Here is the input.
Amino acid sequence: EFKKEEDIRSDRRPGEMELFSRETLLNLARTMPPVNSLKQLEIDDPAFLEKIFWQMIFLGLEWFPSEKWFIEAGLKNATDTKNIEMKTRLLEIGSERFYTDMVFLREMYYFKLENRDAAGAAGVVNQLIKQYPSELEPIYLGLKLSLLLTKKITYQSFRKLAIAKGMPGEIVELFDISFDLLNHDKKSAMGRITEFEREFLQYQYYITTLRYIAGDFFSDDETRVKRAKKALIDSIDQFCDLELRTKSKKK
Here is the structure.
């Protein structure tokens, strides 16, 4: 069980086994081995392995509060095993200890989105923009949030900021297309796709996919529409992630 700092006795001398355990955990934090990279053991009740894993994570956080690997490893396992309780708990700890860390704040942002906490996600975006004013990713996350909310004023605000900060034109125009699609403005969306194709010939492979997805947005089949929305958001994530990484490497 994870202990609060005020509950830890500072006058107790650790024994030999505890010292060995601390050394082992510190080595793990330094080498940062991947989580869930080994095949699960074929045992009747694997739950006890999870219990041992979480005991290791929380002891690591107790003994080495500044080592964020324990948070990252715990979050990875909680995500893989769909353990919402542990994920929430780790994010709460992280929000106190690593509130300026980009990796952690990104994880918090997506967790807020998964739980339909728009206000919480907006708070994370604002914090990211303050902490990383020269980075494009916080603005991208703000654009994505405004896209999901389909609020024009919010979207235009982030769009203006994106242009001012030098967001690649193809990303801005792609968000314009997506905003029109999500607001069921077929004429504007299809017109923007044509303009996008004319301006960015190098992305023909993506434009073909985009036209196919856009067609399903105006289907009478609600299931197809829902799938189209998910496909659009997923494709935007993949496309923009690649473009932003490429731009970052060129700096």
Observations:
- The two ends are 45 Å apart (CA to CA).
- Residues 87 and 136 are 27 Å apart (CA to CA).
- Residues 168-251 form one domain.
- The longest helix spans residues 222-250.
